[in-house]
Design goal:
The complex is a heterodimer of chains A (244) and B (254). By secondary structure, chain A is an alpha/beta fold. Chain A has helices at residues 42-48, 72-81, 97-108, 113-126, 142-153, 172-187, 199-205, 233-238; strands spanning 2-13, 16-27, 31-36, 57-62, 65-66, 82-85, 160-164, 191-195, 208-213, 216-222. Chain B has one domain (30-253). Classes of the chains: A alpha/beta (244), B mainly alpha (254). Bound molecules: adenosine-5'-triphosphate (ATP) and magnesium ion.
């Protein structure tokens, strides 16, 4: 069953038509890689999946509900179930790591401060961030910020996770950490969309890839089939022959 | 033409923001802790600036009028003139202008940076509302702090006049106070204070609007901050005329 279904997504900024009818779907438990050139419109699509942006035309179904015209207040229900991992973490820099992680728990659960604290300790440990509770984001390295950002977005135990370039600009160690985390979430049955330029990570975590080019999905295929058509547009994009 | 377009966009944008602030402000939860934090950073931290402004305004006024009127033997009118102009005009207006500079700039640059670093998006993505978390605490803090600070400025300004009257013009403090109390009526006081409520909105709403609508990265934050302070200052100065006019009309009825 499709958890996410995007139909005929069309959007322009000013006079620039960025999406000319993008359609795809993501099945329960699947990790879909979304690749495409810089400025192709990947982030805009991802943001639209939790209503941070609205398409000009087209439909977005999450768990069978069409959300593209929902109000901010209605979208809260979606945002509790669908997590968004921002490219640079987007941590609240006026709050400590602890308060960043506690944010959604305090807002959306009835947990006591003690239970919240236990949950955060456990989460920090899982991400190899123990001992950083009372540090401010600006005191962390970029890689650690991204890990905190990931930890913060999934703390409510979401059904779906949307990743916007979670491994961009990271060293191999941090990249591996993020990949492992994504795989672990996948084992728990989380459905995900993974936007990236980092092909090794696509091979490591995705089941299927779609290519956004010229405002449309130009190609799609399972990871296993990727190398099979060397002349296909997907392979030519990956090899840097075809681009935006 | 782009000025006109920006102006229309600003008016529409702040109108929408105002509507959101009212409709979301009436719906729980109201984050009281965030409001008290803002009262501290907006109100308490502005106190020194407001005190200095008020004190020097009162002192300069007393000096100007005192030395100017001395030739005509009008020195004893100094308490009257100083206190009336401070209470009706200068206290509220100067306090609000200083707040526009300090607080307006602070709010816009903070919100702008949050916008640029996607923290505003993160607030939404985590299922919360930037209007409730960010805008409403700042608007409420301004509505509480600007009138309070103006009230303090009124006192301190008149006190500054007293100091100069005493040391430069040989008016005894007792005489000065007596004249002040004879002059000022509740209507004078309220006509000055009534404006500060509007001035608070002129500061907070544009500041939030320009901050939330920053585009173009960190450079955009600088531009937005400047625009926000200029806008608030103009609204205060121009608005002051119309508010004064409106309050005079109301006073006629009373
Ligand atoms: N708020 C906006 N205002 C104007 N144009 C925008 C806005 N957001 C996105 N765009 C435009 O839409 C296009 C797609 O942007 P998007 O951020 O989705 O690209 P992307 O595929 O994520 O690129 P990258 O790989 O570099 O992150 C870009 O050309 C961008 O200029
Ligand atoms: Mg992007």
């Amino acid at each position: 069953m499709a958890v996410i279904e995007v139909k005929n997504f069309t959007k322009s900024f000013g006079s620039k038509l960025v999406h000319r009818g993008v359609s795809f779907s993501v099945n329960q438990g699947e990790c879909l890689g979304l690749i495409g050139g810089s400025g192709a419109g990947k982030s805009v699509i991802l943001r639209s999946l939790i209503g941070l942006e609205k398409p000009d035309q087209g439909e977005i179904h999450i768990d069978g509900e069409e959300i593209s015209r929902w109000t901010e207040r209605q979208l809260v229900e979606i945002r509790k179930r669908v997590a968004y991992v921002f490219q640079n973490g987007a941590l609240f820099d006026s709050m400590t790591v602890y308060d960043n992680l506690a944010y959604a728990l305090r807002e959306h659960t009835d947990l006591s401060e003690g239970e919240i604290s236990d949950r955060i300790r456990q989460q920090l440990e899982e991400f190899g961030l123990q001992g950083n509770d009372f540090v401010y984001p600006s005191q962390l390295s970029g890689g650690m910020q991204k890990r905190v950002g990931l930890a913060r977005s999934i703390i409510l135990g979401p059904k779906v996770v949307l990743y916007d370039e979670p491994t961009a600009g990271l060293d191999p160690y941090n990249t591996k950490k993020i990949q492992d985390m994504i795989l672990r979430l996948k084992d728990r049955g989380v459905t995900s969309v993974f936007v990236t330029h980092d092909m090794p990570s696509v091979y490591a975590v995705c089941d299927r890839v779609i290519l956004l080019l010229n405002g449309q999905i130009e190609a799609s295929g399972s990871i296993a089939d990727l190398g099979k058509d060397p002349e296909g547009i997907m392979q030519r994009f990956i090899n840097g022959i075809e681009g935006a | 033409m782009s000025v006109v377009r920006d102006l229309i966009r600003f008016m529409g944008g702040t109108a929408i923001l105002t509507k959101q602030v009212i409709s979301e402000g009436l719906r729980p939860p109201l984050y009281l802790r965030l409001i008290t934090e803002q009262i501290q950073s907006i109100g308490l931290m502005s106190l020194p600036l407001v005190l200095i402004t008020a004190l020097s305004t009162g002192m300069v006024m007393a000096l100007q009028f005192g030395l100017g009127l001395e030739k005509f033997g009008g020195k004893m009118y100094v308490p009257k003139i100083v206190s009336l102009s401070i209470i009706r005009e200068l206290g509220p207006v100067f306090t609000s202008l200083m707040m526009a500079a300090r607080v307006g700039a602070g709010i816009t640059s903070e919100l702008g940076s949050m916008k640029v670093t996607q923290q505003i998006d993160a607030i939404r993505a985590l299922g919360t509302s930037p209007i409730k978390k960010i805008v409403i605490p700042r608007v409420i803090a301004c509505i509480i702090c600007v009138p309070l600070l103006a009230a303090i400025a009124n006192l301190v300004g008149i006190g500054g006049g007293l100091l100069v009257g005493w040391s430069e013009l040989n008016l005894t403090p007792a005489f000065y106070w007596q004249k002040v109390l004879e002059t000022i009526t509740l209507v004078d006081y309220m006509s000055g204070m009534g404006k500060t409520f509007f001035f608070a909105l002129f500061i907070a709403l544009p500041a939030c609007y320009f901050g939330l609508n920053v585009s173009g990265g960190t450079r955009g934050v600088g531009v937005a901050t400047t625009t926000s302070v200029v806008t608030a200052s103009i609204l205060i100065l121009v608005g002051d005329y119309f508010l004064t006019k409106a309050f005079w009309i109301i006073e006629q009825w009373l």
